[in-house]
């Protein structure tokens, strides 16, 4: 067995499911795969939620882990004007939050179809393998 860690990206699109999303994130974080050398990241795409998801992630993740999608909101896969920008303000209290730094949060201001949301997550994923949750 190789001593180089395997890097897995878990991708999760979500819309107005904050309480379920918290449980999903916790289940990924507490996975124990010892003695296997596995590292992972969790890429979450919030597709225009109005249930407090945006505020939850903004107050619990460092700004380097928060991305915003800027586009026309037409949900066309080949949107030429789509830009992904990083957050510019750290909204955590005292610079601390309850989420680990292997979580990447992506926010769209409008609802995005599930397949497109998964593709957006996958484009941001850095892992050798991808697991959709």
How is this structure best described in words?
The longest helix has 12 residues, at 18-29. The chain is 22% helix and 29% strand. It is built from 3 helices and 6 strands, in the order E-H-E-H-E-E-E-H-E. It has one domain. Helix 1 links the parallel strand 1 and strand 2 (38-47). The chain has a 6-stranded mixed sheet with strand order 4-3-5-2-1-6, with helices on both faces. It has helices at residues 18-29, 53-58, 114-124; strands at residues 6-14, 38-47, 66-70, 83-86, 103-108, 129-132. By secondary structure, it is α/β, with parallel strands linked by helices. This is Glycosyltransferase 2-like domain-containing protein.
Keywords for this entry:
133 residues, globular, 29% strand, 22% helix
> Helical content, roughly?
10-25%
Count of DSSP strands: 6
Q: Tell me the structural class.
A: alpha/beta
Write down the overall geometry: globular
Total of domains: 1
Q: Major sheet, described briefly? A: 6 strands, mixed
Note the gap between the termini.
27 Å
Number of helices: 3
Query: How much β-strand is present in the residues?
Result: 25-35%
Order of adjacent strands in the largest pleated sheet: 4-3-5-2-1-6
Average predicted local confidence, pLDDT: 87
Low-confidence stretches: none
Following the backbone from N to C, one meets helices and strands in this order, namely EHEHEEEHE
- Rg is 15 Å
Protein name: Glycosyltransferase 2-like domain-containing protein
Organism: Didymodactylos carnosus
């Amino acid at each position: 067995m190789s001593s180089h860690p395997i890097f897995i990206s878990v991708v999760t699109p979500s819309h107005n499911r904050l309480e379920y999303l918290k449980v999903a994130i916790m289940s990924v974080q507490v996975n124990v795969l010892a003695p296997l050398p596995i590292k992972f990241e969790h890429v979450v795409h919030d597709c225009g939620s109005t249930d407090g998801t945006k505020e939850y992630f903004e107050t619990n993740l460092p700004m380097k882990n928060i991305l915003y999608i800027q586009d026309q909101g037409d949900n066309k896969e080949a949107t030429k004007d789509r830009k992904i920008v990083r957050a510019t303000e750290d909204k955590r209290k005292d610079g601390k939050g309850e989420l680990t730094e292997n979580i990447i949060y992506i926010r769209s201001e409008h609802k995005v179809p599930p397949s497109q949301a998964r593709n957006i997550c996958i484009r941001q994923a850095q892992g050798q393998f991808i697991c959709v949750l």
